[in-house]
Every structure is written in structure tokens, then in C-alpha cells.
Amino acid sequence: MKKNVMIASLLAGGLVLSSCGLSNAVKGAGIGAGAGAIIGAGVGRVLGNTGLGAAIGGVVGGTAGTLIGNKMDKQKRELEEKMKTAKVESVNDGQAIRVTFDSGILFATNSASLSTSSQTELRNLAVSLKENPDTEIKIVGHTDNTGSDKINDPLSLKRATSVQSFLAAQGVSSSRMQAIGEGSHSPIADNGTAAGRQANRRVEVYILPSKAMIEAAKAGTLK
Asked: For 118, left (φ over 0), alpha (ψ -120 to 50), or beta?
């Protein structure tokens, strides 16, 4: 296990160093599927974010990776223009997009009911998802470590499910989406500070290439 973690860490470090300043399209062509599988399966856990590792999967190499990177670059730019309170970023060597919402924006404390003010952002996200139908969506809810797993685990899942249900009501196909509850198990900041706990309370929406998109990219027909 330690050996696998070390390999994944080294590969992740090499990719970070080698991909600085590159577009998603260029980065998409820069890694083979074998290394991508290690990154997708292992680096999320190495970095303490099991939701990321479980959600994004492997990377497609070669020309197909370039085409997927181009496609994701375009959608990312569109989302950045539309989303005002969410963080939009490239992950998985540019072949996936992560949209992160602060849970405080989406929900009241200890609630899984979406606030009225958050729904405009989610409607904008739904429009983008419908305009790009050849993707899959994984919605991952997170909490801080306040309280017990008995409370946090189901709350994180309920929040992810609430986002999923809202997007479905906006016309996004339910068959494309999966809701995951990570509870407090995947922190991105120090739970020992108020700012860290706030950062950890979040919902991440991963936009991933579907099997159909990957096959079209491999065939050279993805536009």
C-alpha cells in the first residue's frame, strides 16, 4: 500500500510540475491511460480527498485526450462566465471540471433544503449541463468534522441529493447523475479553524466525459 501511495504521489507531483501554464487541451494529450488510472484511483486519497479520487476516474491519452480537453475547456469558460458564487476549475489533467459550492450558500445550517438565492446558480449550471449532454455528473457532498459521522454522513448525502433533484427538475437527465455523501472524511482545509471548517462544508459537482464522449474522441468525431 505504501509503495502504491508513493508511486501515485510521484506521478501526481510530476504532472503538477509539467502541466503548469498549459491549456486543458495540451494537458489532455500529455498523459497515457495507465498513469491516468493511477491518478484517478489513488491521488484523491493520497491528498486526503476521497471524493475526488472516487469521482474522476482515469485520464485518456493521445489525440482523444486532446479532443476531450478542448471540449472541457470550452464548457469551463462558459461556466466561469455564468457562475458568480461557485468555484470552477479543471481537474483530472484537464479532462474533467469541478464546480464547488460553499454549503453555506446552498443550505441553511444543518439543513438539506436549497436556499432560494442558490437556485439561480444551479439553474445556470443546469443550462450548461443540458447544452453538453455527453457528460456524466457526480455530485459530492461534504461537511466539516463538527458533530458525529452519524449526523454528517447522511447530511452530506442529503445535500448532494438535493442538488441532484434540483438539476433533474431543470431538465438534466437523472441517468447522467450520481449523488455521493462524503461526510467529513475528505477535508480540504484545517478543521481546527473556523475558516477551514467553512471551506470543508461544500458540495462539489464533477462534470466528466461519458463513455459516448470518450468513444467519439477515440474515433476522432468529437466536436
From this structure: alpha
Residues 6 or more apart whose CB falls under 8 angstroms from that of 131 comprise 78
The CB-side HSE value for 28 (13 A sphere, CA atoms) comes to 24
Strands 87-91 and 135-142: unpaired
Task: List beta partners, residue 99.
Answer: 88, 205
Task: Give every CB contact of residue 210 below 8 A, 6+ residues apart in sequence.
Answer: 134, 135, 136, 176
Domain locations in the chain as residue ranges:
2-219
Decide the pairing of beta strands 177-181 and 96-102.
unpaired
On the 0-12 / 13-18 / 19+ scale of CB atoms within 10 A, 21 is exposed
CA distance 28 to 58: 11
* H-assigned helices in 132-172: 149-169
Superfamily per CATH, domain 2-219 = OmpA-like domain (3.30.1330.60)
- The pTM for the full model equals 0.78
**Tens digits of residue pLDDT in 21-65:** 344 443 444 333 333 333 333 333 333 455 555 556 778 888 899
Quick one: cell of 99?
464546480
β-bridge mates for residue 87, sequence order: 100
Q: Is 92 helix (H, G, I), strand (E, B) or coil?
A: coil
Q: Decide if 201 contacts 142 (C-beta within 8 A).
A: yes
- Note whether 205 and 122 are within 8 A (CB): no
Cell of 175: 441517468
